[in-house]
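Lecture 7 notes: from sequence to structure.

We start with a single chain of 280 residues. Read the sequence below before looking at the structure.
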Amino acid sequence: MDSNKEIVAWDLDLKNYLKDFSYDAGFPIVILLICCIFLWLCIAKKITKILITFSTLLIVIFCFRKTPDILLKPLLILSEQKENKENSLIISNILPNCINQASAIVVLGGGIFQENLPSTNSQIRLMGLSQLLLIMNSSGTKKSQIPIVLTGGQTNKYIKQSEADAMKVFLNYFLKKNSYLKIITEEESKNTYQNSAYVKKIFTENKIEKKIILITNDFHMLRAKKTFENQNFTVCPVPIISQSSSGSGVFNFNNALTSVTFMNEYFGILGYAWKGWLKF
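Now the structure, written as tokens:
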């Protein structure tokens, strides 16, 4: 019994620190940094040293656990979103008042894994839609029965199915009891700009007022909202809450993937602004 007490009383602080700096991407990053030091001590062209050192620092920064949070925050501020620390909901349970004026819900596609199986981003957006409908139903609003537009064309050359059709299959399976839903699929678009343009065409053909509830990831909401507004839509944003940092350790490959995703969003905003596809 005494020996068990001694084991429980061990000080694990040092072990935890070592684990934080060696887990996942930590050990490879340490090796890279050591290699950079030896590189500068060796005889090599200066440009080679600079390029390799820069690449290493980029990997270190992207893998750092705080980087996704730093990159996400400006996107939330610019799209007038508040940081939400809730873990129980994919969307905020405090919905904006503008949902009462919307004529339809638009859910943006985010890729497709295989036939009838949308990507993780698309699945999370559909789960956010289901939570939105649940909240709307519990509040007794008739807006829970407005048309739902799923948008996304064939973006994977190895899969003939469109994102929108895969999302519809997934949604019908996910919401079996909600047969009253009026689902419209837009299956031509391959980017956010085309999402907005083809959805506008559907609204015009069906004589639907261009007031929408827009569902997409929070980091993508700024570009999506401004793009739809550029097509003369009145947008009520319902962003999907992102888990910005993930994984264990100070440096983690999951954080690198998330950081690259957020950086791509910044490049997307700049590109759309240059092409005139955004309305600020």
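The chain has ten helices and seven strands. Keep this in mind for problem set 3.
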